[in-house]
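User: Structure please.
Assistant: Input sequence and predicted structure:
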Amino acid sequence: MKRAPASSIALLDEAGAIAARAASGTDERPANPRSSRRDRSLWALGASLLLGLLLRWQYWSLTRVIGTDGAWYATLGVNLLHGRGYTDATGAVNVFFPPLYPVGVGLASFVVRDPEAAGRLVSLLAGLTLVGVVFALARLAFDRRVAAGAAFLAALLPTLANNSVLVLSDRLYTCCLYAALLAGVLAWRAAGPRRLAWHALTGAFLAATALARPEGYLHAAAWVAWLVAQHGAAGRRGDLRRPLGGALLVAALAYVVVLSPYLVFLRHETGAWRLTTKTATNVVVAYRGAAADEHNRYSLNAAGTAEGGFEANHDSLLAELRRAPLGFAKHYRTELQTESTMLFDQLTPALLLLVPLGLFALPWPTPRRPACAALLLPLLQLGFLPLFPIEPRYLLAVLPATLIFAAAGALALAER
């Protein structure tokens, strides 16, 4: 006798269940466990945002002093958006600070009249947005439990919360970086026209990252390497549905469209095509001491009145490496040790111990592997930062990825 197909048996079972509910007078379907888990994870995200907002509000009320860089950002943004150009307090054109954060401060100043409060508001919104982005990335890389844990950690880690109320570009930079990673992963998973739209959004966010801090240029190169690697892996599995050339072209066009106004501005003010003017000053400070920076006053020349530029524009890392290779290596080693100490202080030993578990103890299924690999990209910055003087806030872009792996490590430990 022929056996009925499994699909037919499933349909008969469903029909029988419906009939039984109708006979008993309750024609309600049983609760969907997936929907219940989704609801719980969204509640966890909402609770994380609320707790994060309360903690940041507390830091806002305790922070009374604006730093030197913050004063520059606020002045540049207000001057730019109120018709005085990208100029500092003396009226000189500034080519040192990338424009994204000052533009955000200038826009916020139309709502909040105080420039310092406007800068804090931009950082606060970027910090809270980052919590949601971390949740989404952790959900794509692992599961809802890891996503909920990572969101709580991103909301409540004191270092992230404190920096979310400072007039500094780091929080906006970090938010743009992880938004680019999220858009890139979604582009990889999408199909049809949506895939190209997500690739365009990835390129736009990567450009915004570079417009917030010059380290963002490195992340664009890292993303291209990630995309090529994912296409290679898909090709080896026989999955050739995602053309690489189209993805790179769309992302590159979006990247250039967003970034080009700033590059044209630098060309106009400095007389040369360049990606940033910060490298020369950072090289001088890193390898010749802070005293040498006295001649590099951000946007001021020797007279203190004309357009931007630095006396050290000719300096570069390669020039420093040729001039004093042993000093270069010694500086890198010293800053690498400083970086390790700072990372240890910001994450605490418990979280740091959970990171290797999240990296290696949980499996990376094939559909989730691209998202897991994307989370490794911000960690590449750890090898770049010791080339220059390190401050604790420069490590903030690394923390969300490590928190996701720490949450995954906690889950792996709980399941053992």
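Residues 325-360 form the longest helix (36 residues).
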